[in-house]
Amino acid sequence: LDKKYRANRGVIVQSEKADVENRAEEKFKDFDEDADPALVEFERNRREYINAMKKIRLENPDISLIDLETKAREEIMAKGPKSRAYYRAQATRKMAGKED
Asked: How far is CA 45 from CA 48, 73, 100, in A?
């Protein structure tokens, strides 16, 4: 198990990584799947973004709002499908010796 330590009112508390991830998951009421497919997709993406922001906020409570939005956007984009051009650009960067 992966252990993490965080400050809780001046006291260092040990927690497991799964505990932070469980607290970050928002409990949404079920969305009607018979609705417009575009609306269902939008709602699913919105929920993923909110959960990513909550998870990042729990890991970094003092992060600024701009940095929080940037990290959440990067995390959501990293989860999505990647094109062949993405992998080609990554291979080119790796051959050139550049970091991500």
From this structure: 5, 11, 25
User: 26 vs 3, 4, 9, 16, 74, CA distance in Å?
Assistant: 22, 21, 24, 18, 19
Task: Report the alpha-carbon distance of residue 78 to residue 61 in Å, rounded.
Answer: 22
The tokens describing 81, both together, are 């499908």
* Residues 67-86 pLDDT 10s: 999 999 989 988 888 899 98
Q: How far is CA 57 from the centre of its chain?
A: 10
On whether the pTM is more than 0.85, the answer is no
Cα–Cα distance for residue pair 97/12, rounded to 1 Å: 40
The enclosing H or E element of 85 equals helix 84-96
Task: Please work out, in degrees rounded to the nearest 5, the angle formed at the alpha carbon of residue 98 by the alpha carbons of 96 and 100.
Answer: 135
Q: Which of 14, 78, 12, 76 is nearest to 47 (CA)?
A: 76
